[in-house]
TrEMBL record:
<dbReference type="InterPro" id="IPR028082">
    <property type="entry name" value="Peripla_BP_I"/>
</dbReference>
<keyword id="KW-0325">Glycoprotein</keyword>
<dbReference type="GO" id="GO:0016020">
    <property type="term" value="C:membrane"/>
</dbReference>
<dbReference type="InterPro" id="IPR000162">
    <property type="entry name" value="GPCR_3_mtglu_rcpt"/>
</dbReference>
<dbReference type="InterPro" id="IPR001828">
    <property type="entry name" value="ANF_lig-bd_rcpt"/>
</dbReference>
<protein>
    <submittedName>
        <fullName>GRM6 protein</fullName>
    </submittedName>
</protein>
<dbReference type="GO" id="GO:0007186">
    <property type="term" value="P:G protein-coupled receptor signaling pathway"/>
</dbReference>
<dbReference type="Pfam" id="PF01094">
    <property type="entry name" value="ANF_receptor"/>
</dbReference>
<dbReference type="InterPro" id="IPR050726">
    <property type="entry name" value="mGluR"/>
</dbReference>
<feature type="domain" description="Receptor ligand binding region">
    <location>
        <begin position="3"/>
        <end position="113"/>
    </location>
</feature>
<keyword id="KW-0472">Membrane</keyword>
<keyword id="KW-0812">Transmembrane</keyword>
<keyword id="KW-1133">Transmembrane helix</keyword>
Amino acid sequence: AGGLCIAQSIKIPREPRPGEFAKVIGRLMETSTARGVVLFANEDDIRRVLEAATLANLSGHFSWVGSDSWGAKMAPVQGLEDAAHGAITILPKRASVPGFDEYFTSRSLENNRRNLWFHEFWEDDFNCHL
């Protein structure tokens, strides 16, 4: 209704094989009119997508909208600035809550019984079984 459509939804495998990112760029090119790419990926995968776009001589072809995993970082785009040029990244506002760190680190099993998830956190954090 708003003139926007999702042309494709491409999932990057957890353990991508060689050439996987070239395939991603190839799939993006299948829809010739689609230029905007919303990229929710980790830093390494973002870098590899941008590298694949560069190798395919498509720097500047796509308009990237990136998740917070690269919104405040240089590493994913360093050396790939031409491919990432004009990208918009979304970074949720971060703010420290006064006293939260002290409160959270003072929690223990004795003083934190009402939080149902806390025992799972405790087991994971201290590598134990209650």
